[in-house]
Amino acid sequence: MTISPLLPVYNRAEPVFTHGEGAWIFADDGRRFLDCVAGIATNGLGHAHPRLVAALTEQAGKLWHISNIFRIPGQERLAEKITAATFADTVFFANSGAEAIECALKMARKYHAAKGHPERIDIIGFAGSFHGRSYAAVNASGNATYLDGFGPRLPGYVQLNVDAMPALLAAIAAPTTAAVIVEPVQGEGGARALSGEWLQTVRRACTEAGALLIYDEVQSGMGRTGKLFAHQWFDDAAPDIMAIAKALGGGFPVGACAASEQAASGMGVSAHGSTFGGNPLAMAVANEAFDLIAAPGFLDNTLAVAALLRAGLEDLARRYPQLIVDVRGKGMLIGVKLTGNNREFMAMAREKLLLVAGGGDNCVRLLPPLNLSEAEADEALARFAATLDLAGERWAKQAA
Ligand SMILES: *Cc1c(COP(=O)(O)O)cnc(C)c1O
């Protein structure tokens, strides 16, 4: 037997982490890393935030789980906060991003079916997009390798290119279209931010065609771009349905599907459900995380430090043109496209005690906690520069 007891679907990096504090994370051999992965944009408040620890431990002594057949006051409170802060009128709580997407896709089809149009099932997604690993999510995602070996793409999933606007407008107007699903800032695909004009154009086209617009803000939401949600940078670009997860629970598994009253109009009793979704533990942490991120002034720091990081990385791009192709993204969802292999670069960054994430299009992503300090951003830039020096040496040797 050669398979490991743990299903080998991840190529895991070597450090074993034991604890963290803010943007710092400690390995069992004593090394201390600066964490610009943050659990893939999930530990938005850093590690072991005292208020999140207090919220979780206090709830842990009271009630963990009761099932959604009973009222869960924490869900009611958080749904009120999310609806007050967004276009949405109603929220469903799940355990992950993929489940938030499942709810969004089911809701879109149900909306049309309930209005007498069960033929409107097509979900339009985009090349390079990522929506999670559930069966519906891999069908909606724009990376064919996630579907590889799992059967043909299901009927009702259309894939287009974000740059092909005429084809997109035609597809939106098609009589079998249910919805468009898009990340306002593509995360896994390589930190590509869509313009306000693109989002507004698609918004208008969906409204005209009676199709729904779904935003996947699983990664770009909860303050990652410096606004609570990335689409809120633009007027007249709100979706009908939005999937949220990652930083929503500050590291505790929780997701949410937020929708307008109209978009949710098909979802009556028993249309959807979840055993664990929004359980009292998740809600205790998520309410606290939401309060911290939505507090006046919190995202001012995120924006200021993100600008510092961005400027520093652009400066590095000018100083290392042989290594960096470009710097992209929005707020603290930053992608650096490299000339050499991004996986190798991530390993070299770990040698310099810096954690960065991978991404499509040969990017590495910097997704630090939103409360990163200026001093920590300077330190991240210094370690990134040291990694560039190391990569420059190694890649030059490889080429020789
Ligand atoms: C991470 C991610 C998902 C999937 O979330 P899971 O919690 O892993 O299921 C979906 N969409 C986007 C944009 C993501 O970044």
What is the secondary structure topology, with strand pairs?
Elements: E1 17-21, E2 24-27, E3 32-36, H1 38-41, H2 50-60, H3 73-85, E4 90-94, H4 97-114, E5 122-126, H5 135-140, E6 157-160, H6 165-173, E7 177-182, E8 185-186, E9 192-193, H7 196-209, E10 212-216, E11 241-244, E12 255-259, H8 280-294, H9 298-319, E13 324-330, E14 333-338, H10 342-351, E15 354-359, E16 363-366, H11 374-399
Parallel strand pairs: 3-15, 5-6, 5-7, 7-10, 10-11
Antiparallel strand pairs: 1-2, 2-3, 4-12, 8-9, 11-12, 13-14, 14-16, 15-16
Helix pairs in contact: 2-8, 3-8, 6-7, 9-11, 10-11
Bound molecules: pyridoxal-5'-phosphate.
The site of pyridoxal-5'-phosphate has 15 residues, from helix 4.
Structural key phrases:
single chain, 400 residues, Aspartate Aminotransferase, domain 1, Aspartate Aminotransferase, domain 2, 2 domains, seven-stranded mixed beta sheet
Describe the model:
With 400 residues, this protein is an alpha/beta fold. It folds into 2 domains: 133 residues, Aspartate Aminotransferase, domain 1 (Alpha-Beta Complex); 232 residues, 3-Layer(aba) Sandwich (Aspartate Aminotransferase, domain 2), CATH 3.40.640. 37% of the residues lie in helices and 19% in strands. The protein has 11 helices and 16 strands. α6 runs parallel beside α7, α9 runs parallel beside α11 and α10 crosses α11. The structure holds pyridoxal-5'-phosphate.
